[in-house]
Specification:
rod-shaped, 7 helices, mainly alpha
């Protein structure tokens, strides 16, 4: 197989893979936009956060594959002389193309998963910080809000929360995680009285 044919085939495969990924999502989704799209008037949708961050990760992987295909096509057109032989047998070239494409796909899929986890955590921080700021404006922690704070910690921030943890400790850990400042006069009396009764 000639080098130019090998590189054309490799570029076509990478281009096809990249196009598939680009069609799966939109790379321009920012954590702030994902937060707005996944929030309702009352709460957030974890499934929607997962879907939107996965779409963004897929789009970025697709763009990388398209850029690899473009680079291969440019190198082939600009630098490889016609008729240059790389492999004696065509099957070896085809196998190598699909092997390289498979390795690239696996590497980029793992990168996409890491990017999705990163963006999901960024969205979780935005949502949790907004909830804490709303809580801080009220000046007190109501007993009804403690379970919501645990959901934010577990679902959005992947934090470990022990049910025996005090609400004060939970609020302080959440605030530290999202870079918020707990007001010194935040009233915990309602939740602390409830804990004393139990």
């Amino acid at each position: 197989m000639d080098v130019d044919k090998f590189l054309d085939l490799l570029a076509a495969v990478f281009g096809a893979l990249g196009s598939i990924y680009v069609l799966k999502g939109v790379a321009a989704l920012s954590p702030n936009l994902i937060e707005r799209l996944s929030s309702t008037y009352f709460d957030f949708s974890s499934a929607q956060i997962d879907a939107l961050t996965a779409q963004k990760a897929d789009s970025i992987v697709g763009i990388v594959l398209v850029l690899i295909a473009l680079a291969i096509a440019v190198v082939n057109s600009a630098l490889v002389p016609q008729g240059m032989q790389m492999f004696e047998r065509r099957a070896v070239g085809i196998a190598l193309v699909f092997g390289l494409a498979g390795l690239a796909y696996i590497a980029l899929a793992f990168s996409g998963d890491a990017l999705q986890r990163h963006d999901k955590l960024a969205v979780g921080r935005i949502i949790t910080k907004g909830a804490l700021e709303t809580l801080f404006k009220t000046g007190k922690l109501a007993a009804s809000e403690v379970s919501s704070l645990k959901v934010y910690a577990r679902t959005l921030l992947a934090m470990t929360v022990d049910d025996s943890e005090t609400p004060r400790s939970l609020v302080n850990r959440l605030a530290t995680e999202v870079g918020a400042q707990v007001p010194p006069r935040l009233d915990f009396s309602e939740v602390e009285k409830k804990a004393d009764k139990q």
